Amino acid sequence: MKTIKGPGIFLAQFMGDAAPFNSLKSICEWAASIGFKGVQIPSWDPRLIDLQKAAESKTYADEIKGIVNAAGLEITELSTHLQGQLVAVNPAFTEMFDGFAPAQYHNNIQARTEWAVNQLKYAAKASRNLGLNAHATFSGALLWAPAMYPWPQRPAGLVEAGFAELAKRWLPILNEFDANGVDVCYEIHPGEDLHDGASYERFLEATGNHARACLLYDPSHFVLQCLNYLEYIDIYHERIKAFHVKDAEFNPTGRSGVYGGYQAWIDRPGRFRSLGDGQVDFKSVFSKLTQYDFAGWAVMEWECCMKHPEDGAREGAPFIKDHIIRVTEKAFDDFAGAATDDAFNKRVLGI
């Protein structure tokens, strides 16, 4: 068995205009000062990385890695959550998602999609140049808006056609990641066509069970769906290659439940919380991932609707550290063992 690496922190929610949150060097120094050992880098923020340059220049990638290492940290993964979202967008959401791409691609779905696909391919090469073996992203969604709930009744073949198209778009990307020795880890997330185990299985089948179509495990999204997030690890552990440590709570009322009633996060029955403030059983999560030999990073993603992010980060590093299980190199009952041989075993069995 392997010991989970960490604690890591996803930088996306912490970037800002003021120091120390406005450059790779200063935010890494801040993260290290409060106990983190790794950073997951959002690749869409030019203050942190030039994704294309990291793909095309090993020298530049080494410079980025050097900045992180100088702070006493490692890069856990790159993230293309925003670009991955744009690989597949239902027309109902197209204008709302334009902000995820540079202005020159707005109001041009084809050009924006091509840009997103190229971004993912750059991420494959950049990950290789940085010495990484896993990558975090979203799948995008063609079906979510019109077909998430089966009313009106879905036309026959609609879901199959949607997943066939999603796989068609992702297969060239998955093959590029495969060529670079990197796993694509889809964060299973509402708003994506890959939002639970059943939808992930549909996608996996449509890609011919592509070896690089893997998973980013985040139990917070499953709490909000009332999905068994521990059994999920039992089912999909062979595909889980990345891990977001994020807490959540679900407190349904007589007025609102899973769908949230269009309410703000603070008023929804299901809402994200800082680590330790929600309902996720992280002792069991870390135990199961350790049992199944997860060898990746435990990366804090902070999205609490109440607590200040700096407090959430300061509390999050020791929370993760205290949950990581340092695996043993010997069995607890070795002291009672005895040397045996084949003849001895046969005598014990009476054969």
UniProtKB/TrEMBL annotation:
Residues in Xylose isomerase-like TIM barrel domain copies: 29-322
Keyword line: Isomerase
Tree of life domain: Bacteria
Gene3D superfamilies on file: Divalent-metal-dependent TIM barrel enzymes
Molecular function in Gene Ontology: isomerase activity
UniProt cross-references to PANTHER family, sorted A to Z: HYDROXYPYRUVATE ISOMERASE, XYLOSE ISOMERASE-LIKE TIM BARREL DOMAIN-CONTAINING PROTEIN
Name by which UniProt lists this protein: Sugar phosphate isomerase/epimerase
Species whose genome carries this gene: Chitinophaga varians
